[in-house]
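Hey all, quick one. A colleague (J.T.) asked me to put the S-adenosylmethionine job into the tracker so the inputs and the structure tokens live in one place instead of scattered across chat threads. No bug as far as I know, just bookkeeping. Sequence used:
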Amino acid sequence: MSNRIQRWKENKIGWHRNKPNSKLIEFINCLHLEQGDQVFVPLCGKSIDMMYLLDQGYRVLGVELSTLAAEQFFVENKIEYSIHQSGEFSVYSANNIQMYCGDYFKLKPEDLKSVVAVYDRASLIALPLELRVKYASHLYSIITKGCRVLLLTLNYPQSQISGPPFAVNKEEVWSLYEEGFECQQLACFNDIENEPKFQRANVDFIEKATYCLRKKVGEKMAKKIKGVVAQFGTKGYGFITGDDGEKYFVHQKNIFNKSRLKANTRVVFNAEESDKGLVATNVVLEGGSKAASSSSNGSSNGMIKFAITILFIAQAVVIYKVFFASVVG
Ligand SMILES: C[S@@+](CC[C@H](N)C(=O)[O-])C[C@H]1O[C@@H](n2cnc3c(N)ncnc32)[C@H](O)[C@@H]1O
């Protein structure tokens, strides 16, 4: 966390843009906003997109760790502001905008009770996988039912260049949100031509995607739990011992990327109850990497089967020859 504050101190804020995001302008209608509605901007930095929202007649509620970001936002946009304390947050406020300075994960539903929509640009993708899981589930827990989210993401081959921003593909957006939100992809295009940093690193592509999510009415998102893989067999299922002491059945189809798990690996998952007992779904490795052991295991198993088959055929040929020779001879 101090690393992020340090970036503001050193002015290393390469994500900041000086004009409103074109996808916000293009797709703002998907949020179904009316004049005076309040839009939540998580991990807001000093985003100029907040000025765009204010200029359209909406109210803004931002949350940002760095007080420097908040000060710069108000000073650079020539907005007079006051500061007051609310719980763990220093709240920078002016007409129609409040910026909560503090940790997003400490926000409570009562802080967002007037919020009707969320705008996420460079926020989810600023976080490593484990925090993204926590971020999505926290967002679900603090916004009201029916609340809409305009989400912008990037996707590129993560093995070719490291984040942040981190690569988040459609599959991951669904895995993070589908349970509690109706999800729709609005746009997705390769923008490598406008990304010199990615070109220099010879990255194959960089997809920019826009999603509209709507928090489902009357459904609950499953509880997130951490635990350790107790066993996982070649048939594609096994058990996880949750940190809550419970034993969870896990099937390969419920693992991110449909990969296999190794025993003793730490994982994060949704805890669900079924007729047959506790089940783990949306399983990801704790600490970030998406896949566990998988295709490489699959291919080595394949090689072993192939070698045994060849051995078996060779033996059959030898036995046949010996038998044939003794009969003929
Ligand atoms: C990549 S920047 C994006 C800022 C903004 N969304 C934009 O488009 O310019 C991510 C921001 O999130 C802030 N941040 C990171 N973790 C946070 C947390 N747990 N709570 C609040 N802000 C956080 C960082 O200080 C940084 O300003």
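Adding what we noticed when we looked at it: The longest strand covers residues 181-190. Residues 295-328 form the longest helix (34 residues).
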